[in-house]
Amino acid sequence: MKSRRIVSSILAISMLLPMAACGQTQKKTETPSIEGYNLLWSDEFDGKELDETKWNRETHEPGWTNNELQEYTNSDENIFVKDGSLVLKAIKTEKNGKPYYTSGKVQGWNKTQFQYGKVVVSAKVPEGQGLWPAIWMMPNQESKYGQWPKCGEIDIMESLGNDTTISYSTIHYGEPHAEQQGTIEKKGDESFSAKFHEYSVEWEPGEMRFYTDGELVLTCNDWFTAVEGADDKPYPAPFDQPFYVQLNLAVGGNWPGNPDSTTDFSKAEFLIDYVRVYQKDAYDTNVTKPPMTFREALPDGNFIRNGDFSVAENLDDDIDWKFLLFNGGEGSAEIKDGEMIITTKNYGTEEYSVQLVHPDLPMLKGHKYRVTFDIRADEARKCIVCVSAPNAGWIRYLKDTSIDLTTDWNTFTFEFEMKDKDDNNGRLEFNMGKHKDTATIHIKNVRVEEI
To answer: What is the pLDDT of residues 34-43, one digit of tens each?
Structure first.
């Protein structure tokens, strides 16, 4: 195959000319240069109103996607520029005797689209249950590979108002729907609602790298897209076409949940200080998808490392076992005397609110697997077990299975056949939230093996 190179300035020239002539804003400072890149376009939001040569105000009725509650309007009450920042404001009113929410969304479709580059955005997110700010990208021609998720989606930053200590960077693609996600945590005065943070993605033909404040959060290079049941489109589809930037503040929806009495809408403002898009002189598009590598089982056939809990490993890192808390879950975990011991203070609102996981399980289509473990609790309670696919839309290879725990040790065994695409990142999960159970759980002798 001959090497093809995309010359970036040719892609951008048609849209740069009207922007240069606009003269709407007077910059307070020069947009900084980045070594190895040329500035393609930027908006420092230094004017008095939104620059509509770069942005569209997108409108939608409530419930348009993700069961979100807001109406996206073109109103200056929901979208405005103030003190050098773009403000997307969510407003709570009443309609037909029920709460009604409006908010703002802007995007660059057919105005500032580009193919490959570095996007840099400085933003401050709002706090509040049910608030969901996002900085993301969609293809300018969504129909090229088919509707979402086949078309691809690049999420530079998402945050949930109920916990603004965590920021998410994600790509979506497929079909079937697959995703890859990275997170970063900043607490206290450094949280994502306490101050402005800088979010960026370096998008190249065969790789995307996501950063927060210059710290690498996620690297992706092995995506795909296809019509389900058909062969994959040539790599690097679907991320080989022009995309545009979107900024919005959603209210409610499947992921954040709905607002409640604690949500202060007087402060429900998503602030964006600047958006900057840079490109290299050219990009080499002669790229190939890296081969998928599958780790070997241990000598005894077990894919679970430290399944006997003989090592008191760090349960906060991404190596082997990891303990996680979400959506109101409170608790702790420790390895002691050959057991994993999980103590729950608050069970939270979701089954995964208190969660123990082991990642990197090789799952091959057509192969059969067995999961085995010993478990007990200090009092009778429930626990949910599954083998999930974090990079494949969270589908289940072993379905969510509820087990009843007693004070006696019991051995549980589950067998399943992997029927989906090969996946080198299957994940064993023990989910211990939601069901009003807080009794301490003890686990030992965990195995996942091929049969």
So the answer is: 999 999 999 9
The letter for the amino acid at 288 is T
| Active site (annotated) includes residue 158 | yes
CB atoms within 10 A of CB 342: 23
Report residue 104: phi and psi, to 5°.
-125, 145
Structure tokens at 28: 């307070």
135-151 per-position pLDDT tens digit: 999 999 999 999 999 99
Q: Kindly name the residue from 58, 153, 175, 339 that is annotated as catalytic.
A: 153
Q: What is the DSSP letter of 298?
A: P
Find tokens 């000598």 and name the residue: 299
450 is catalytic: no
Q: Any idea which residue has 């959506």 for tokens?
A: 327
Least confident of 169-178, 354-363, 396-405, 439-448: 169-178
The phi-psi region of residue 257 (left if phi > 0; otherwise alpha if psi is between -120 and 50; otherwise beta) is: left
Residue ranges of domains in the chain: 5-284, 322-450
Asked if 148 and 172 count as a contact pair (C-beta separation under 8 A), the reply is: yes
Q: Do domains 5-284 and 322-450 have the same CATH topology?
A: yes
- The CA distance from 264 to 162, in Å, is 11
The residue among 227, 228, 208, 226 whose CA lies nearest residue 218 is 208
* CATH code for residues 322-450: 2.60.120.260
pTM for this entry:
0.84
CA distances from 361 to 232, 313, 418, 448 (A): 23, 18, 12, 8
b/e 17-43 (16+ beta carbons within 10 angstroms → b): eebeeeebeeeeeeeeeeeebebbbbb
Q: Which fold has domain 5-284?
A: Jelly Rolls (2.60.120)
Note whether 173 and 156 are within 8 A (CB).
no
Task: Tell me the C-alpha distance between 252 and 260, whole Å.
Answer: 10
Residue-wise over 217-253: b if at least 16 C-beta within 10 A, else e? bbebbbbbbbeeeeeebebbbbbbbbbbbbbbbbbbb
Q: Which residue has the tokens 């206290």?
A: 188
Instruction: Determine the pLDDT at residue 21.
Output: 37
Instruction: Give the residues across from 344 on adjacent strands.
Output: 331
Q: Which is catalytic among the residues 71, 127, 158, 202?
A: 158
